[in-house]
Design a protein that fits this description.
This protein has 207 residues and is mainly beta. It has two domains: 101 residues, Beta Barrel (Elongation Factor Tu (Ef-tu), domain 3); 85 residues, SH3 type barrels (Roll), CATH 2.30.30.240. Strand 1 and strand 2 form a beta hairpin. The longest helix is centred in the first third of the chain and has 6 residues. The chain is elongated, with a radius of gyration of 21 Å.
């Protein structure tokens, strides 16, 4: 048991964001190797507290186990991964037991970014407006973000206003909510208003 798993464990923050997964032990002194999710490396390297959560076993069902905090003594990049050492853990076998755990960091611990840069987690859930006849029109809500190797792409679940002005999902002929992929580049998404959870673009809106 590491020191961070005892009865003095910290309260779990409400703003945890999953940033990677432990892929195994690194070296012989209790370090772990983490495969970061896209755009997660900077926050992992800055944060001195990581929260680990064990996955469910294949035969298990129900809620995931509660996360617990580990104090990061050192962390650095190692190729495409991040390696780190934890307070109170100095044995490779202990580190190996963490394989498969997801790694979470409080959003409050993320390093600041430039005005024209954004964390993907902040864009998810924002309402995106496209353009029709030169006017902003509701396109949908950002469900996820992908990286095509050149730039980020917003995966948008389509919505529309009905005749009463209420927001409704836009469905296809099989009753499934339609999706649209929008490149997250300045040429298309020209306004990002995180305070109001609104993105504006020139992306054409088709119904």
């Amino acid at each position: 048991m590491t020191r961070s798993q005892d009865s003095t464990a910290e309260a779990v923050p409400h703003d945890l964001v999953e940033l990677g997964r432990v892929s195994g032990a690194y070296g012989i002194r209790g370090w772990v190797k983490v495969q970061p999710h896209a755009a997660g490396s900077a926050a992992l390297l800055k944060a001195r507290t990581w929260w680990l959560r064990r996955p469910l076993a294949p035969a298990q069902t129900g809620e995931l186990p509660a996360p617990w905090a580990v104090k990061v003594v050192k962390s650095r990049t190692q190729g495409s991964t991040i390696v780190g050492s934890f307070e109170g853990m100095e044995d490779r076998s202990e580190a190996e037991k963490l394989r498969g755990c997801t790694v979470w960091v409080s959003r409050a611990m993320f390093p600041s970014v430039d005005d024209d840069e954004y964390y993907w987690v902040d864009l998810i859930g924002c309402t995106l407006y496209g353009e029709q006849d030169g006017q902003p029109v509701l396109l949908g809500v950002v469900e996820n973000i992908m990286d095509n190797g050149v730039h980020a792409v917003l995966r948008v679940m389509r919505q529309m206003h009905d005749e009463h002005g209420a927001v409704q999902p836009l469905l296809d002929e099989k009753g499934r909510q339609q999706e649209t992929l929008v490149p997250f580049v300045a040429a298309h998404v020209h306004t990002v208003d995180l305070e109001n959870r609104r993105l504006e673009s020139n992306w054409p809106v088709d119904f």
